[in-house]
Amino acid sequence: MERFYLGTHMPSWLRLTSVPLFISRNRLTRYKTLPRAIGPWALDSGGFTELQRHGSWDRVSPEQYVDDVRRYRDEIGNLVWAAPQDWMCEPIVIEGGVAGRQRFVGTGLSVYIHQRRTVANLVRLRRLGPDLPFAPVLQGETGADYLRHAQMYETAGIRLADEPLVGIGSVCRRQTVSDIADAIGQLARAGIRLHGFGIKTQGLPLLADDLVSSDSLAWSDRGRHEPGCSITHKTEANCLPFALAWRDKVLRAAGLDD
Question: Taking the model in full, what pTM does it have?
Answer without folding.
Answer: 0.94
